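2024-03-11 09:14:02 INFO receiving multi-entity request
2024-03-11 09:14:02 INFO entity count = two
2024-03-11 09:14:03 INFO echoing inputs for audit
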Amino acid sequence: MTAAAIENQLKGASTRNAAARARLLRSLLPALSLALVLLAIAWLNPRAISYFGFSLMLNLAIPIALATIAQMFVIAGNELDLSIGTFVGFVGCVTATWLKDAPLLGIVVLAGSIGVYALLGALIHMRNLPSIVVTLGMSFVWQGLAILILPKPGGKAPDWLLSLMAFKPPFIPFPIIAALLIAVVVHFGLMRTSYGVILRGSGGNAAALKRAGWSLLKTKIVLFALTGLFGVLSGMALIGITTSADANIGNGYTLLAIAGVILGGGEFVGGRVSPIGAVLGALTLALAASPLLTFMHIPPDWQVAANGAILIIVLAARVLISRRER
Amino acid sequence: MKKLLVLSALAAMLASGTALADTSGKKIAFSNNYAGNSWRQAMLDSYGIVTKKAVADKVVAAADIFTTADKEVPTQAAQVQNLILQGYDAIVINAASPDALNGAIKQACDAGIVVVSFDGIVTEPCAYRVVVDFKDMGRQEVEQMAKFQPKGGNLLEIRGLAGTSIDDAIHAGILEGVAAHPEFKIVGSVTGDWDQTTAQKAVATILPSLPDIVGIVDQGGDGYGAAQAFAAAGKPRPTIIMGNRQDELKWWKEQKDKDGYQTWSASIAPGVSSLAFWVAQQVLDGRTDIPHDLLVPYLAFTQDDFEAALPKIKEGGVATHEYTQEDAIAAIKANIK
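2024-03-11 09:21:47 INFO inference complete, emitting structure
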């Protein structure tokens, strides 16, 4: 073995090491930014760091985390869902009306809406349509249906849902347990099963998957159906917390969910997503946008702008680190 | 003798029902979901003026304003939860939804926090609601119309944003007024959405199909638009009830200067936010006799006093009124039956 070869080998090892470090940093970033935001909150308002505090601050983060996971599935397949927010609103209206008064009808409608999502996936794949256009159109459909079901704000969440969301386990606040559960279940399903690899592969290298004999139509349908499923869970969790619905209740979730996926280490293309990161990203966004802002005592005229500034700072940190990786 | 004096003073204090507890250490937060129009800006201004003085006078320890970044319900629900964590003693709220915030409101009540809603009220029973008597305002519009048009005649009604409780209440009041004054007849009704441009278009569309109109009953924010529609069509100018907007009062003044035109103007004052603040302060003060639904008067201007108010209104703004603690005590008293 010549000296040059050894040097080459060493160089290769060091670049591999650097890449591994960057990858580690990237996977740690969502946890890191969450820790930073929590530290800031603890410093501004120590009272918030308690069982009661976490229950209050994080319970509205659960529907956001579920919507973020929903968005993550379409992003894994290189698509984007602009209708997830209004879909959550639609599910909310169904939950607060039919699911309570006529549970069977409610379940059928919710299952049917997941079916609609699966069909959308098939349509987008077969006609080769841009998902942004199709889902933007669907966002108006969901919104319209929500207003039809619930023209005026109101309705009431089913009692079992109310008691589930108000559940107070010992020691660890419910929202934290729920977030862990969501992250672990989706992580196992998408990152540790063989079909999960195929699903991510449909976004990473579709051509290779196709040549290997996998059906891209099926992967797209499954990804969109999973989006629908988690959208339904998000809407139900939201209504379980607010107790009553409003047709516009989920509108803000569309962009929040996309930001959560990106903050959690996902990429818009290439099937690179991280369920644990996405949940952490959603929690970070939920905490940074509301409790942190409220505790900072910013003059009212600047609060809206400050909210945007916090989002940009948090997302910019993520971009800086992923650039070092290249 | 001295003892007697003290005792009688104490008795007087108890009888008046105020100042039972000290509120100088109490913190009141204002949760607002939208700041993007002139009415909301005036609402925030009035609140700021009144609460700054209250803090300076050591009536309360703090009165902070929080506006959410978007109009969404979950954002405001999260904001209310954060205010609970912040340790506020009371929350004054203009809510994004009458029902969908009830979960967060209930959590606040359970944490021992006083919640007072106004304008955008919440239906959760534990909260207080400061509601303007819109029904009476609608009824009064017809009463006033009867003064200006004693012979009666045909009326045109301009409705507000469909599906809202405010539109419902004013409309019901107007119908009651017309029932009490059979000399009037509503011959047409359009939707103006409390917006001059929308109202102008709507009135211009229906105008050719209407008989002669002697008066217009409306909901505010639509009077100037209606006047423009009549002027454009070359129809005789009817008696148009105004809604305290700057452009409406300005037009009224122009007409009055020209030929002594008479009308009446009423609307909800954005400063009702300051009234809600004082109600919260009164509850913190230990008063337990305050009804949870408080009906408060609207702000009205007549032929004699509108010109004095006009210069004080910002261009494109709405007339407002900052309420005092005495106003709040009087309003509460009027609601205790």
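2024-03-11 09:21:48 INFO post-check: DSSP finds twelve helices and twelve strands in chain B.
2024-03-11 09:21:48 INFO post-check: Residues 9-20 of chain B have pLDDT under 50 and may be disordered.
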